[in-house]
Design a protein that fits this description.
single chain; 428 residues; hpI Integrase, Chain A; 3 domains; three-stranded antiparallel sheet
């Protein structure tokens, strides 16, 4: 290749890559190459090839480089090439799909990959939480059942390459019209389910040779609004009064300390259910938790909260309890024939959905805003801490385990109070 050809090819390739970015073409991967003798352009790309069976009786799939001449183009046809980048991408993808489908096998089925995905060690050395596994399992089960009933051709994983995006849109529209297990899906449900399905197909691409990466990325679903609604001052006063009344009752004695813990630390419900005595720093009165893969400290400086926690942490003579693992071990009372019976298991903690269910009962009993959820305790903590720290967003983000400060910034709109000057005061 001479210097002129090298320069022209470099300019052409840069222009093609720029156009691929503009069109958001991440897959398939291909390059523009040059036949130096004729100045004709070629597409260079890889396909999967079945090369036989190995010693273990398993099929061996390898990558093979392939080249295809571009019709009626040469190195000087830059504008024409740029205009046809999408066509080249479609052409390469079509051939990749044909070769992949020809290979065939159990790994072509959606069910096979859903089983592979149902694994806490699905990606590298990361361990996926039990709650995430459970959510993904339910999500993919619903998708598979709908596909089996309505569009069974998409039970073949390769059919998603050409028509998967449109199929997913039809699925989401169905859920918005007819609903899931309980009710029709809103923007929030669509968005959370979309993120899970997108992650699943990205997992497939990492583990299935030739399957395109980022297949379902950047789809046109309305993003759910981040809720910042929380307790009003009146509502939090009612809740505090209710907690004082119920802390020794047979029905609520176990829930009151957990609710207090949520309000004073801003932790997630899944985190309060898993706090362990061994993670407690007695001298500093703090406890470490891991939320969404990140470790942080929850501080227990409040005297009222610490006094409520003491029976869960210490024995009667002031020693740290070693008879159990969880701070809030499974312990509650059940009413039967007018009497209350204690149920207790020192070996396990509470489930997050059980705490959320009890929270809803508390909301109904106190007759405050029925839209409040356990997550509102976290929002309450964020809002109050922003007020007390004069809007120290990095500090509050660290306390609640938010990597993205923008999420915490949403709560600064609630920081206006009587001490803030909110008008110019032109005639004051």
């Amino acid at each position: 290749m001479n210097k002129i050809q090298t320069k022209k090819l470099r300019i052409l390739r840069r222009a093609v890559e720029k156009e691929k970015k503009r069109l958001r073409i991440a897959e398939p991967k291909f390059t523009i190459q040059l036949d130096t003798k004729t100045n004709r352009l070629l597409l260079g790309y890889n396909i999967s090839v079945d090369v036989g069976i190995d010693d273990k009786g398993e099929r061996v799939i390898k990558r093979k480089q392939k080249k295809k001449y571009l019709a009626n183009t040469n190195i000087d046809d830059l504008a024409y090439v740029i205009m046809n980048v999408q066509n080249y991408s479609d052409l390469v993808m079509s051939e990749i799909n044909k070769t992949n489908k020809a290979i065939g096998g159990d790994k072509d089925t959606l069910g096979y990959w859903i089983e592979r995905y149902d694994n806490p060690n699905r990606v590298g050395t990361l361990t996926i939480s039990e709650a995430s596994i459970r959510g993904d399992r339910q999500n993919m089960k619903m998708l598979k059942e709908w596909i089996k009933k309505n569009e069974p051709e998409f039970l073949n994983i390769w059919n998603w390459v050409d028509g998967g995006r449109d199929c997913l849109i039809r699925y989401m529209k169905y859920k918005q019209k007819y609903g899931g297990l309980r009710k029709v899906w809103g923007d929030g449900s669509v968005n959370s389910n979309y993120r899970r399905i997108r992650a699943f197909f990205n997992f497939v691409s990492m583990n299935l040779n030739g399957f395109p990466n980022r297949l379902l990325n950047n789809m046109p679903f309305v993003k759910s609004k981040i809720e910042t609604e929380t307790f009003s001052n009146t509502e939090i006063t009612i809740v505090k009064q209710w907690m004082e009344e119920k802390e020794n009752s047979n029905e609520w004695f176990w829930f009151v300390p957990m609710l207090h813990f949520l309000l004073e630390t801003g932790c997630r419900v899944s985190e309060v259910c898993k706090v362990k005595i061994r993670d407690l720093d007695i001298d500093e009165r703090r406890i470490s938790v891991i939320g969404k893969g990140k470790k942080r400290w929850l501080y227990l400086k409040s005297e009222s909260l610490w006094n409520r926690l003491k029976p869960y942490i210490f024995t009667m003579d002031g020693r740290i309890r070693t008879d159990k693992e969880f701070v809030f071990h499974y312990k509650h009372s059940v009413a039967s024939y007018g009497k209350w019976f204690l149920r207790e298991d020192l070996t396990k903690g509470f489930r997050a959905d059980g705490v959320s269910h009890k929270f809803k009962r508390m909301i109904r009993e106190t007759k405050i805003n029925e839209r409040l959820t356990t997550h509102c305790t976290r929002r309450y903590f964020i809002t109050e801490m922003l007020k007390q720290t004069s809007g120290d967003i990095p500090l509050v983000a660290q306390l609640v385990g938010h990597n993205n400060w923008e999420t915490v910034k949403l709560y600064t709109k609630d920081l206006i109070d009587d001490s803030k000057k909110v008008n110019v005061g032109l005639f004051d």
